[in-house]
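ok new one. same drill as before - structure tokens go in, u give me an amino acid for every spot. 78 of them this time. try not to just spam alanines like last time pls lmao
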């Protein structure tokens, strides 16, 4: 649910600042966020069938976000 909360907060900030704001440009398409949400959505029903695959999906999300996302920092510095 943290990914859902982040996505909603992200969209609310962009809606307040406008689609041409620095935050909107920094976030862009938010591919990492969308991939995370998709993996979480797949992992929940998968846990009922194949627990090891579900755990692998959760670990994949962790590894995806292990690399820092510096898009917002770069956009605000500009």
């Amino acid at each position: 649910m943290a990914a859902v909360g982040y996505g909603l907060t992200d969209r609310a900030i962009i809606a307040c600042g406008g689609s041409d704001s620095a935050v909107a440009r920094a976030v862009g398409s938010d591919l990492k966020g969308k991939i995370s949400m998709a993996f979480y959505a797949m992992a929940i029903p998968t846990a009922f069938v194949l627990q090891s695959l579900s755990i692998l999906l959760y670990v994949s999300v962790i590894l995806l976000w292990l690399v820092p996302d510096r898009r917002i920092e770069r956009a605000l510095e500009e």
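The chain has one domain: 2-77. and btw The chain has a mean pLDDT of 86.
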